[in-house]
Design goal:
- Helices cover about 85% and strands about 0% of the residues.
- Among the domains are: about 25-65, no CATH class; about 145-255, Type II secretion system (T2SS), domain F (Receptor-associated Protein, Up-down Bundle); about 260-323.
- With about 325 residues, the protein is mainly α.
- Helix 5 runs antiparallel to helix 6, helix 6 runs parallel beside helix 14 and helix 9 runs antiparallel to helix 10.
- The chain has 14 helices and no strands.
- It is elongated.
């Protein structure tokens, strides 16, 4: 069996697995029907909690403009620009693409010089060139999001104190932007800048919420929008929101502590095959060097690496809980 037959069999097996996953995951039509049935149940239920929930959802639907869409949903380039913006860096899509292309070509040339295997060099170059910048951007987004979530309840408490002292909302937002350090102060400053150029406070907050993509800030935006429509004590509402966000953060820490053992197991299981491979390569190089010269073993090694990556990704999703 030559190289092309091996590659064809690998592609067929991969296609069968993808189709099987699609069949198991189910279609979007069934999920949409389930959501409609749930909405009808809440609408016609006699329960007070169900009626309040349905009323809240109708208020959320009414406050969204007709042209509302999720940030980054227009195209791949727009989604990438949103991801780069969420890092807090001044990176552009062009810089990101050039960096990925240069990294991929550099790694491919380096591996080809040492192994003289073009297929291996191309596969590893594509994997590192596409994967490493994506991982770096994701790490920076996660780091900035965690810093924002940590300081955000303090910013809301400062906002509550300003409202209780008689200051208007805009001035209290200005105080938060100058007093709270880090991403919280920066994002509130962007809200104030948008308000100064003529945007309403709701639109300015919604633009920042679309940029950040953080659930806690979305809660804050929805709370202010609903309160402006229905009235009530804004300071008390924001104080309750700050308590909810702190409890949410505590629950995340508890889940992180409880799932730490599973994460350690996933790290060990995911890294063990690669550690064994390099250990055998160090002990008996001649036995393992065929993975860098034989086309069939190169395809098998790349396929095994992809499946190991998929397995690690699935294990990571299993221990990642949304609050």
């Amino acid at each position: 069996m030559d190289f092309f037959q091996t590659l064809l069999i690998t592609l067929v097996i991969f296609s069968v697995l993808v189709m099987g996953y699609a069949l198991i995951a189910g279609s979007g039509v069934a999920k949409a029907q389930k959501r409609r049935m749930e909405a009808l149940r809440l609408r016609h239920s006699e329960s007070l909690d169900a009626k309040v929930d349905a009323q809240f959802k109708r208020a959320l639907a009414a406050r969204k403009p007709k042209t509302f869409k999720v940030a980054g949903s227009g195209s791949r380039v727009e989604a990438l620009a949103v991801r780069l913006n969420r890092t807090g860096k001044s990176w552009t899509v062009t810089q990101y693409l050039y960096a990925s292309l240069g990294l991929g070509i550099g790694i491919a040339v380096l591996i080809f010089v040492f192994s003289r295997a073009p297929l291996l060099a191309l596969g590893v170059g594509l994997f590192i060139g596409a994967g490493l910048p994506h991982m770096v951007v994701g790490h920076l987004i996660k780091k900035r999001t965690n810093a924002f979530i940590t300081k955000f309840p303090d910013g809301i408490e400062l906002l509550v104190r300003g409202l209780r002292s008689g200051l208007p909302v805009t001035e209290t937002l200005q105080i938060v932007s100058s007093e709270v350090p880090g991403p919280v102060g920066y994002e509130f400053k962007t809200v104030i800048d948008r308000i100064k150029v003529g945007k309403t406070m709701e639109d300015a907050l919604q633009d920042t919420a679309d940029k950040l993509g953080i659930a806690e800030f979305n809660f804050f935006t929805i709370t202010l929008a609903i309160q402006r429509e229905t009235g009530g004590n804004l300071a008390e509402t924001l104080s309750n929101l700050a308590n909810v966000l702190r409890q949410r953060a505590q629950m995340k820490l508890k889940i992180k502590a409880m799932s730490s053992e599973s994460k350690a197991s996933a790290y060990i299981v995911g890294s063990l095959p690669f550690l064994v491979f390099f250990a055998i390569l160090y002990i008996n190089p001649n036995y393992m060097l065929t993975f860098f010269t034989d086309d069939r073993l190169i395809v098998a090694g790349l396929g095994a690496g992809v499946w190991m990556g998929i397995g690690v990704f699935i294990m990571a999703k299993m221990v990642n809980f949304e609050i």
